[in-house]
Amino acid sequence: MAIKLSNATLPDLPEDVARPTYDRSKLSPGILHIGLGNFHRAHQSWYLHRLFQQGLCMDWAIVGAGVRAYDSTMREKMLAQDCLTTLIELDPSGRSAEVVGSMIDYVEVAEGNGPLIARMSEPDIRIVALTVTEGGYYIDPATNGFDAQHPDIKHDVANPETPKTAFGAMVAALRRRRDSGVGPFTGQCCDNLQGNGAILQQTVVSLARLQDPDLADWIEANCTFPNSMVDCIVPATGPKEMALVKDFGIDDAVPVTHENFRQWVIEDNFCAGRPDWDKAGATFSDDVHAYETMKIRILNGGHQVISDPGEILSVETIYGCMQHELIGALFDKVEMQEIVPHVHPVPGMTPDAYVELIRQRFSNPEIVDTSRRVAFDGSSRHPGFVLPVVRDGLAAGTPVEGLALVEALWARMCEGTREDGTVIEPNDPVWDALQAKAKEAKDRPRVWLEMRQTYGDLADQPRFAAAFEKWLAMIWADGTDAALRTYLES
């Protein structure tokens, strides 16, 4: 029988399951984290847990929080097991399990976010961190500036004490902290965004400025928003993962599986103190941008290169995509010929070596990471991970044929059917709009590039636009295999 996970049952877990060696009752909070999904619990939470295992930084435990309906369900599940999480490492050489105990509470999720605002206003909270997905920062894709016209933002401007968004709640809490003399906190973005700290700062300060310009000035002068690069492949949890945790003898309502690799590079810019994450393997660096660029372009961009053809060709997993004769070869050629030329080395790692590392990680047969999950939210991921490389290639005169093919494959995927005739269920926050454009682009490919909010002026760049039109027409006329073979043989 699997043992129900809780503080009381930690001593009863099977001997091969690692668990906290520290006294969790001695932990006190220092970080409030918004967005308690799998990635946070396998990454940032794990680094803090590793510090606690060394008896360090025990006043930096995590208080969980959220602003969506999903978060209420997560809160109930987490509190029922004392905020513990089982992490299962999927290494080709063998699986292992570890219970992580760095989170100690979860704020009530309520309309208007009153409990969240109140908790962030308390002096023990010195860092407010977020993982809310790349598309969650209210960025206008046409300008990369703040989207002040979004209905959520308009609501928060009109209702500053009962906001809908995490950022409105942060602004409300900072107003209280300023007025009470508690002082600022650090805002720490943990999402896959280039310059993620700067983007978080843009969102928070811009929203504050629409409400109270003096408060916006105070936030700019006193709060810090460090940039960081986060990396760990963390699949979604489904029936397979739920069965796997029970195989370890644990009854955990929210287990997480992950690969045997983690990286966290952080700008050391914390206005109210921070844990010594470097003592748990993180890297503090003044050049986070170089690490970010390498990872976002090669890993995250590489995910987009393979996940869309995987969906079209009914290849269910990223491992399967890498084993596929054509999709795996597409990854190799696009990475080495079209992405690597626009990536600089970082200490201890060249772009070529990083491509090989990513190839190995994507090829881990133990990681059941679906093409569908990786292809999700292409409307944010393609502009963030792929199109900047296209622009660099056009400016430098380097090849962009493969990247044009990648964009054509995305357009084909968004039409909503696979080549075997099965339906691709909606997989983007703006799926209906994308699908309408994709169907129209079947007969007139250029209409896809005319989505200015995504592509800007790329429809007006003849070298890229002509290649895109050629590939999308070929995909529809001859099939994805034919297009991939034509590119690989060129």
UniProtKB/TrEMBL annotation:
Domain Mannitol dehydrogenase N-terminal: 30-279
Keyword Oxidoreductase included in the entry's annotation: yes
Keyword vocabulary terms for this entry: Oxidoreductase
Top-rank lineage group of the source organism: Bacteria
Keyword Oxidoreductase listed: yes
Limits of the Mannitol dehydrogenase C-terminal domain: 287-475
Protein name in the entry: Mannitol 2-dehydrogenase
Organism: Tropicimonas isoalkanivorans
Upper classification of the organism: Bacteria, Pseudomonadati, Pseudomonadota, Alphaproteobacteria, Rhodobacterales
